[in-house]
Amino acid sequence: MAIKLETLRHSLSHVLACAVKELYPGVKFGIGPVIENGFYYDFDFSKSKESPKEKDLPRIEEKMREIINSNLPFKKENWNVDKALKFFREQNQDYKVELIKDLKKKGEKYVSIYKLGDFIDLCKGPHIKSTEEINCNAFKLNKIAGAYWKGDEKNPMLVRIYGLGFETKKQLNDFIEKQKQAEEVDHRILGKKLELFIFDKDIGAGLPLWLPKGAILYHIIENYLYEELLKEKYQWVKTPHIANIKLWEISGHLSFYKENMYSPIKIDDEKYQLKPMNCPFHLKIYRSKIRSWRDMPLKFAELGTVYRYEKSGVLHGLTRVRGFTQDDAHIFCTPEQLSNELVKILNHGLKILKTFGFKNYKVYLSTRPEKYIGTLKYWEKATRALKYALNKKKIKYEIDPEGGVFYGPKIDIKIRDNLEREWQCTTIQVDFNLPEKFDISYIDKKGNRQRPIMIHRALLGSVERFIGVLLEHYKGDLPLWLSPVQIWVIPVGASHRKYATEINRELLCNNFRVEVRDENETVSKKIRDGEIQKIPYILVVGDKEMKSNSVRIRTKNKDIGMMKLRKFIERAKKEIDRKK
Amino acid sequence: MAIKLETLRHSLSHVLACAVKELYPGVKFGIGPVIENGFYYDFDFSKSKESPKEKDLPRIEEKMREIINSNLPFKKENWNVDKALKFFREQNQDYKVELIKDLKKKGEKYVSIYKLGDFIDLCKGPHIKSTEEINCNAFKLNKIAGAYWKGDEKNPMLVRIYGLGFETKKQLNDFIEKQKQAEEVDHRILGKKLELFIFDKDIGAGLPLWLPKGAILYHIIENYLYEELLKEKYQWVKTPHIANIKLWEISGHLSFYKENMYSPIKIDDEKYQLKPMNCPFHLKIYRSKIRSWRDMPLKFAELGTVYRYEKSGVLHGLTRVRGFTQDDAHIFCTPEQLSNELVKILNHGLKILKTFGFKNYKVYLSTRPEKYIGTLKYWEKATRALKYALNKKKIKYEIDPEGGVFYGPKIDIKIRDNLEREWQCTTIQVDFNLPEKFDISYIDKKGNRQRPIMIHRALLGSVERFIGVLLEHYKGDLPLWLSPVQIWVIPVGASHRKYATEINRELLCNNFRVEVRDENETVSKKIRDGEIQKIPYILVVGDKEMKSNSVRIRTKNKDIGMMKLRKFIERAKKEIDRKK
User: Fold this and answer.
1) Tens digit of pLDDT for each residue in A331-348?
2) How many CB pairs under 8 A join A and B?
3) pLDDT beyond 70 at B40
4) In terms of DSSP bridges, do strands A235-236 and A298-307 run parallel, antiparallel, or are they unpaired?
5) Residues of B designated catalytic
6) pTM
7) ipTM of predicted assembly, 2 dp
8) Sheet containing A323-333: which strands, arranged edge to edge?
9) pLDDT, tens only, A138-158
10) A485: chain B residues, CB-CB within 8 Å
11) Which ranges of A138-266 would DSSP assign to H, the alpha helix?
12) Of B215, B238, B243, Cβ closest to residue A203
């Protein structure tokens, strides 16, 4: 069965080549193998009058159906190598000639040839007997792309046409539907399609590189957090990515967190560690000055990139990586302030998650793990404080037994996305232990030295993972304020270009992220591209729009009619202010 | 001579204690040793009616002069340990009692005592014979601070009064002047005084931690660059701080830049490196997509934190560190675009340096170093292009022979600061070699694959070093747009607090970084503090200002009179827009 399907797909690639030969005389053929779920064929159109575009695929499919319906047989022949060379040379099939030469060099005397109507191909086979074995409705050409001959960048660039091939129409449609659903949701596919981020094997697994559009999205989120935290009287700090191993000895990470830390770097006979957490740095900043009760609560925030070991098998796109940026903060407070601060952080966390569109969540209280530092008394106090805050906010929660961090218990908020999946984001941890390890203090009203309590908290958790979750939650259709490109302006014809540029300028002045698409393509092709790239607003401008200083608006794959530019700007600004 | 000066300083600390005893009855004495350039004494004022503040130092000095002028002798006596214990216990001198107990434990039978008038101290000496040996005009109390008893945070916090002591008035004044000048300029001292950054031995040399105010300054510069580069059509990207060693093998860094790179980190049996440069990552981003001549020039920018080895001996504040953030960018262009792009970068670099206040600079052209990659032909081409750009801009330059990077020659712009010192900032490097190593290409108009040229460029160089240079250039008096705190509002009395808060709100609405100083201190003390902290505008508000909706403005240590609040806001906004 599996072999039969492979043969069928291979034969489909010959039918494709045969159709292309008829439609694009002069085309040169590369190779046409079977791939997962289908097939492709590589073509060189440099000697043809024109080169097919994506829009031409249905026409090629039509021609393929014609060929299939004429019940052509696949005929195999064995040719002498020199006869084959002569034949393909006469046909100007340079790539085939190259392949046959390679075979000759290897000592081959004969090569196998398959004939399908007029199309004669160098091919090992096997093939089906006749095109009548192919179901006309069970294949589809689905992609056209560039590919180097033999995959080598030094060689010419060919055009590769991809197709899907199945035995039944239902199998084909099921596959297309499944693929569409997966692509719609999977942030790894969306990340590629929307050109947000890549991974590269020479750089390493779990280490994302942010492409320009992804970096814009990243920056919007960073900027939003920067302003939002200033309002809540957080003070931003910035710390290095490595520190002497001494720091991790003091903090206890070296004993309690070692499996997540990388091997040390040697500098001048001392060992340094890539940071897996930001807390010890913030404790050092706390210690840099004598602190008074007047300074409490003192809140240090940092978008700190940390590196933690994860097994390569569990790495997954942005949601499980080896390097990520925590929206980290540490609140130092007096015992009297603790519960109030916890309630404030809970409120703030839920507000921020709501801004990003997450309204459903589940809350967990994680208790003392097997390996821990500090006294049981401290652990009990900390756990009580967390419970108090949850009860005060009347938040229902579940206990996650032994799920705390080595230095303290925590509240975790797991958001529920549009597909009803849970993602851990916000974490709030109460810590009596690190203040002791780092021996930090403040002077109370009476002039005595007191030990502050430390709250560790991240609201989004990891910016990287949060972006992964956002993409899946919205299926890539990000809210306007988060979209890397918010608006496309498409002039209908050359005479509308100037007007499109004016609109572009006006929108830029109003701080929109906008692009004019004035390439020589049809308007409908551009609209389709824009929708694939999830551009929130596509503004088409022609004569009518120009005359009335208006734009024709397409949003969420729908034309919602003409609107004065001024009014559109108002509408879009309001949408951004509402952050949805 | 040196011993005599030490003795003099030691005696001065006793004179200080003697004066404090008279002025603050009930004071308990800690210790009072000699330090570089002077002395200090630690006091516990918890049993006194009041505790001296900085403003009280002149009064204490006056009392010291009185004591000195009465020509009191220093009298030494040897007391039996138990007699001493009894005496200091009766005097409630707990700290002295503790010291004597320590001596007793060590087996001492006798302790030496010094008497100066009523003040009797446990002290090894030696001392001068009489206060008449002290020059009344050659000492000064210069600082008051908190210090833990025996330097241990578990002990009570004492008040430490510091003094300077010399033989002549001229020596004292010379020292004060020299210290003032050094503090005014040295960014390490300014960084501490203005609470911008710290270093910590447990974290490691050359790894700065940015305190809240420093992080604001850092953020302002980052934000300015972000917006400025968008205008110039740069595309921001973001890449990790480590990469597989394979990347550095491809780039050639492992062979040509090894001495500046740290030892590798092992992950899953592969080696990873902390990044010393961002270029290989940007090359990988370039390669992530097929590029066309239409995309050129393609400009990737990143504020990328890199880690490079420097010997511990050459580390210096922010200007020579082991981890720093480059305002890095790579421009990929066609050969035809090269010289135009170089001229554009030169213009842009000089414009940005001017915005920060650097108008004088010197330009160097650095040629092929001893160790290099690529062909001589490429090196010549690259050097010619750089010369062309310099000549086109009519910029005078000097040759720095063999000063280029291993992959290409470069133009360096060294700015001249207000003290006529040179600092390297902008660097522009032409590179034919890395595009080859990474085998990157674009498709030209004819559909052929072509190799782009790569320009490496940083305008500020390192954000950390640039901040160091900025601080020294301005002696800490940063322009308004760069000041972490721009405005202080000081209410004259309690009845003006509400008005001060209103002004604060109005200024915050206008995006100023502002603080209300309504602590219980005198207005003049607050003004002095504000000037030490280099606050650009200090607004004092009392009855008169309240009535007329005005503020009294102090700037650059001068009162410039009353102004309507609305007018002041206009003035300050203009100043920010002009960026000076």
Assistant:
1) 999 999 999 999 999 999
2) 186
3) yes
4) parallel
5) 279, 308, 326, 328, 330, 410, 456
6) 0.77
7) 0.77
8) A235-236, A298-307, A323-333, A453-462, A422-431, A410-416, A360-366, A398-400
9) 999 999 999 999 988 788 999
10) none
11) 169-185, 187-193, 212-231, 245-251, 253-256
12) B243
